[in-house]
Design brief:
Elements: H1 2-9, H2 12-15, H3 17-29, H4 35-47, H5 53-85, H6 90-114, H7 119-131, H8 136-161, H9 164-213
Helix pairs in contact: 3-4, 3-5, 4-5, 4-8, 5-6, 5-7, 5-8, 6-7, 6-8, 6-9, 8-9
Length: 214
């Protein structure tokens, strides 16, 4: 909703590539901005001779990488402390981290890389990685790889297909987001069941020792 309104107000053709970069960086930081729409618009304009497509892609990739790293830093320093220190959020934050940290330890690279192509994950992946303390070198590598691949794929697709590229990306994004959501739910259920099994095994191991002590 917010992204659509801003996309209607901001015309990349009038304000140029710097605003495209700001929109992409802001979206990557976690703000509901139309970063991908700005990239598509700039690439379409490049196909008409307004911009150089290589400059569009390089600037978009750079903005995505910089914005994601700022979002990561905010999540790691500000978001985590907010979840653990605020009295009303502490209980929920501890439960979230107990599930999120194992998930990002195992699946963080995939979430960061693939998140570039899905609107919800594109906004949230960086600060979620920071909150859950994904290792920064790993985050930086997969974030940079994803940012470059996203800028190239979306930029070239929009350059070749024009406005129909946005429909293709939205359709693919909806299908992919559903798959990512189902995979995430399955992973969380698996982690919770494994934790319960470990607690049960610990309790079972403790019972014979308690009986012998008697």
């Amino acid at each position: 909703m917010v992204g659509g309104v801003l996309a209607a107000i901001v015309d990349v053709a009038q304000v140029g590539l710097p605003v495209m970069a700001l929109l992409i960086a802001g979206e990557s930081m976690g703000l509901p901005l139309p970063g991908e729409t700005a990239l598509i618009t700039a690439a379409i304009l490049a196909s008409r001779g307004n911009f150089d497509i290589a400059a569009v892609i390089v600037l978009a990739a750079t903005a995505a990488i910089v914005g994601d790293n700022i979002g990561y830093a905010i999540g790691r320093r500000g978001g985590r402390s907010l979840l653990l220190r605020h009295p009303r959020l502490r209980g929920h934050g501890e439960r979230m981290l107990s599930l999120g940290e194992p998930f990002f330890a195992r699946h963080g690279p995939k979430a960061v890389f693939l998140g570039r192509w899905f609107a919800g994950l594109r906004i949230a992946a960086a600060w979620l990685a920071g909150i859950n303390r994904m290792r920064w070198p790993s985050f930086l590598f997969w974030n940079a790889t994803g940012g470059i691949a996203w800028a190239v794929s979306v930029g070239v697709l929009a350059y070749v297909l024009g406005h129909s590229a946005e429909r293709v990306l939205k359709t693919a994004g909806a299908v992919g987001a559903g798959g990512v959501l189902l995979g995430g739910v399955a992973a969380l259920v698996y982690l919770r069941m494994r934790r319960r099994r470990r607690e049960r095994a610990r309790l079972d191991a403790g019972e014979p020792a308690a009986r012998r002590a008697r």
